[in-house]
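Bumping with the actual sequence this time:
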Amino acid sequence: MTAILLKFLKPALPYLLAAAAALGMIFYIASLRHHLAVESQKNILLAADNQADLAAIAAYKTQQAKYVSALAALDAQTQATNSSVDHITNTIAAAPATDDAPVAPVLAQALAGLRALQGSAP
């Protein structure tokens, strides 16, 4: 029985092997196309995520610029305040002893300087 089967299959064996190889290639190509489609979808999603990240980075840079500007304004205000306080302190230190009294005129000047620094009326 086996001999008869081999007798009929022997001439068709190259064709059967070629058909099996062709089917293998077809399945392999279909598998590659499927993986390509999946990875293309992943790439599209990652590109959209990248765009969202770039927009967030731009927003953070804008916010950082506002913070830097606010810090620069605060630094300028602090320097102006320190300069005014130094001026008041130097005025007190340079005042002659005759300006000292129970309610010293130098103290009144210092308080007036502090009021002006705070922006309130004397």
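The tokens above came from a reply further down the thread. The chain has a mean pLDDT of 89.
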